[in-house]
Design goal:
rod-shaped, 6 helices, alpha/beta, 4-stranded mixed sheet, 17% strand, 3-stranded parallel sheet, 158 residues, Ribosomal Protein L15, Chain: K, domain 2
Length: 158
């Protein structure tokens, strides 16, 4: 019976694989992303673009980030029953008076359809939401002034 190759190569330094091939990840240029500039891996990284290396941006601390709680005008019809149970809705004839500020909603967005007449009290709103509510005979009371509007007034005093 002939010797196995492994046993035949005992005593030789590289076992017939050359100087570097038999040691670790030498033949493939290292493990992982080791030394991409000095090997054929460079073309792989060039394809991934310049944003591959290094950190990009940062995460703001959670205590600094203020999340805006939003609601769409289309969701008012679905949520009005839940809001009424919690005491944020009053009915005045055909008009529903909804206090979104007290309910914890920060901004009213314009997606969806308005099916009833609403009087809404909210800190912020989009133009689209404002137009849809008013087109259906309702009104929106914005409880806080927009920051952009106050910036414009200050600059006009100069």
């Amino acid at each position: 019976m002939a010797k196995k190759k492994k046993q035949k190569k005992r005593g030789s330094r590289e076992h017939g694989r050359g100087k570097k091939a038999g040691r670790g990840a030498g033949l493939r240029g290292g493990r992982g992303n080791a030394n991409p500039n000095g090997s054929r891996k460079l073309t792989t990284f060039e394809e991934k673009g310049t944003d591959y290396f290094g950190g990009h941006g940062f995460n703001r601390p959670p205590e600094v980030v203020e999340e805006t709680v939003t609601m769409n005008v289309g969701d008012l019809l679905d949520e009005v029953d839940d809001l009424a149970e919690e005491g944020f809705v009053d009915e005045e004839g055909d008009t529903m008076v909804v206090d979104l500020e007290a309910a914890g909603i920060d901004k009213l967005l314009g997606a969806g359809r308005v099916h009833k007449t609403y009087e809404v009290r909210v800190p912020q709103t989009t133009d689209k939401a404002h137009d849809k509510i008013e087109a259906n005979g309702g009104s929106i009371e914005v409880t806080e002034p927009d920051e952009d509007a106050s910036d414009g007034e200050e600059s006009s005093n100069d």
